Structure to design on (196 residues):
């Protein structure tokens, strides 16, 4: 229990990735509150707009964001914001990323091409990110170094395996992105020239 005199730090993490990669599942798996979901039914109207061939059984899709919360330590709370995956909703990413210390780019190893746009986005915004390769029953496993090479990740970018349905694995990913964001911030601070 947090005492009245202790300070609680809260921070924002963005969970991003392609359509149907498991972002809503990841946020729901770890959130200690009932997650806010802005999902709509996938209808025939989106057939010509969204590529549903990779997720033929998907019945809903996030149209704004997912929101969840997890307390990692008695003095550290993470607020999670899941982005919509379809390209037509990417205009919302800028707003969802305001104030974020870092991001998780969730990747389906069978659809690596879909990971380039989110990776490019966070590189361009200079938001520290980790890559979480979502594995589940029946998914093909590739060595993480091969995936990092195929995605042309910047040197030092953390890459981890995760099953978005496994709370402990998701927690490890969130701890890693928080650590990486802190390290990146400290390195940027050290690199700043000292004023005269």
């Amino acid at each position: 229990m947090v005492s009245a005199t202790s300070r609680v730090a809260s921070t924002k993490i963005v969970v991003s990735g392609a359509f149907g990669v498991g972002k809503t599942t990841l946020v729901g798996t770890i959130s200690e509150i009932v997650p806010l979901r802005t999902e709509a039914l996938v209808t025939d109207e989106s057939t010509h707009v969204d590529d549903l061939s990779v997720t033929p059984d998907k019945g809903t899709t996030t149209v704004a964001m997912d929101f969840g919360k997890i307390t990692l330590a008695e003095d550290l709370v993470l607020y999670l914001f899941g982005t919509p995956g379809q390209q037509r909703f990417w205009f919302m990413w800028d707003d969802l990323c305001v104030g974020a210390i870092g991001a998780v780019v969730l990747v389906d190893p069978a659809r690596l091409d879909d990971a380039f746009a989110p990776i490019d986005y966070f590189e361009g915004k200079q938001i520290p990110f980790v890559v979480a390769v979502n594995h589940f029953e029946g998914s093909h496993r590739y060595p993480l170094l091969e995936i990092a090479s195929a995605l042309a990740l910047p040197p030092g970018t953390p890459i981890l395996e995760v099953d978005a349905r496994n709370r402990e694995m998701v927690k490890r990913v969130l701890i890693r992105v928080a650590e990486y964001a802190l390290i990146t911030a400290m390195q940027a601070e050290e690199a700043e020239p000292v004023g005269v």
Observations:
- Residues 9-190 form a domain with the Rossmann fold fold (CATH 3.40.50.300).
- The chain is about 30% helix and 30% strand.
